[in-house]
Amino acid sequence: MSLHGTALATTARLLQQLRGLHEFMLLSTCNRMELFAVASTERDVESAVLRLLGFAGLRRREFYVRRGPAAFAHVAALCAGLLSQARGETRIAAQVKAALAAALTTGTAGGALREWLSAAQFIAKELRTQT
Question: What are the residue numbers of the active site?
Fold first, then answer.
């Protein structure tokens, strides 16, 4: 699943209305859609996000939710290109940067998410040089 254009903007506007979703960024590429967020750990927040993204009808193995250190490791591996169909490609890092810039511009992302992604991108550079 991926979202582009007005569908991406509409989804972002709907997500902005959720209480407990403090900062977020949507990343939509040709073969994936990911939400990076600073959010409350309350179950109803996750349920509402899954419904808005259209994941509520999916089986749990058809999507993933990462939190804390696992989320950080995931985004670092993603930015390093280790999760891409063509391992090591760097286009995804540029897509993450563009998605963050868009989220900062629209006000859905702020300092916490910017710092978190900056640290993950730093680790991603290290991973690329070691692999």
Answer: 30
